[in-house]
Amino acid sequence: MDQLAIAKPLCKAAYRILHATDIGIGVARAIRAAVSGRPGGVYLDLPAKLFGQVMDAEAGKKSLVKVIDPAPAQIPSPESIKRALDVLKSAKRPLIILGKGAAYAQADDAIRQLVDKSGVPFLPMSMGKGLLPDTHPQCAGAARSTVLKDSDVVMLIGARLNWLLSHGKGKTWGEPHSKKFIQIDIEPREMDSNVEIVAPLVGDIGSCVSALLNGIDGKWPAPPTDWINAVTSKKEENIAKMAPRLMNNNSPMDYHGALGVLRTIIKERPDAILVNEGANTLDLARGIIDMYQPRKRLDVGTWGVMGIGMGYAVGAAIETGKSVLAGEGDSAFGFSGMEVETICRYKLPVCIVVFNNNGIYRGTDVNSVGSDPATTVFVKNARYDKIAEAFGGVGVQVTTPDELKRAVNEAMDSGKPTLINAVIDPAAGSESGRIGNLNPQSALRKK
Ligand SMILES: Cc1ncc(C[n+]2csc(CCOP(=O)(O)OP(=O)(O)O)c2C)c(N)n1
Ligand SMILES: [Mg+2]
Q1: Residues with Cβ within 5 Å of ion ligand 2?
Q2: What DSSP string describes 223-241?
Q3: Tens digits of per-residue pLDDT, 36-51?
Q4: Which of 96, 172, 206, 323 is the most buried (most CB within 10 A)?
Q5: What's the gap in Å between 189 CA and the centre of ligand 1?
Q6: C-beta of 363 in contact with ligand 1 (< 6 A)
């Protein structure tokens, strides 16, 4: 099987090493390819015939290559900086969008300064959350639809105009051609991917943002007050509407009651790492759970890939030594749930909360014909907590937000591998979480 060819279209780069003497340089090349420019996964093929080769151990050691300056700074041109500052200055209703690229760039201080000094409201994408705390006064997360629709100048920092942002056009973005986009990205081909970028800034995010900061002095005009007031009042209205739902103590739980608990826990333990996958479990958690520190939220990413959860939890716990809280839809959990064995084997400080609503989106669907269970419905009253017990971990079954809170806090305090089966009302979720609008609509029904 030609694995290299299979991997090629899915990775940033794919290489094959044929000789033992080339392993050092091959690995160096793969690392450089992965971390330079826009980072991305690299496939390295070591075919079976390589394994049989022998070489002198000393020569082997010497053949290893140190990767020098693997991700060099890429300095933006001064013209592009001036162009971007001119566009930003002209804005009546400016907005900054922080993507996960901004978080990966680890230019946290510069980005914070840019937001603070410019006074511009910002919207974090899912894994950009926490770069600045979601509770920052300029965070427009709770007024997302308003700022996307009504802004006139949008500065994208390490965020792409892909499907997560409706490709920069359509209803989400208000009147057609009503926006000017400034985009900071290390990848020149990202510019004009879907709509015109009037001020492309090609370079690494740290260098670009620092260069912008040099042009934002004490005389920089604050955004118009009516824009700031409009964003703030929409945000306060939405937060006030949500507050009582997050405090409900219903049993069986709904998503809001259970996620309200996890929200408080992350507020009290801001350096814990939050892993998140599912549909309702993902989309609602993204909005409800505030993040306070950069790179603490790991989720399904651009392509919504179920199955990342347990691998991410293992990786995060080992790499950082910090506690991990994993909010998992019951279906999502099933994609990599067997890794609970790994978590227990290495005694990792991982607390998994399975949002058990008996299925995908809802546990109440029925087939219109036949007696088989609906394709989206799972075994009723499943006890996921027993999976942890099977491997010597802690398993807890909870049916109320109060019980959930106690169980999660206990797990996080003890650091013991724990799986909490959180019983969620099977009728609480909605199809496709909050992206039901992407489903095909019946042309007949519209008429
Ligand atoms: C690898 C993969 N397969 C299938 C899907 C389609 N998918 C999207 S969400 C989801 C599961 C949603 O159910 P659950 O995790 O239980 O979330 P909830 O019930 O809380 O909405 C599936 C299978 C996907 N995103 N990725
Ligand atoms: Mg579910």
Answers
A1: 329-330, 357
A2: PPHHHHHHHHHHHHHHHHH
A3: 999 999 999 999 999 9
A4: 96
A5: 31
A6: no
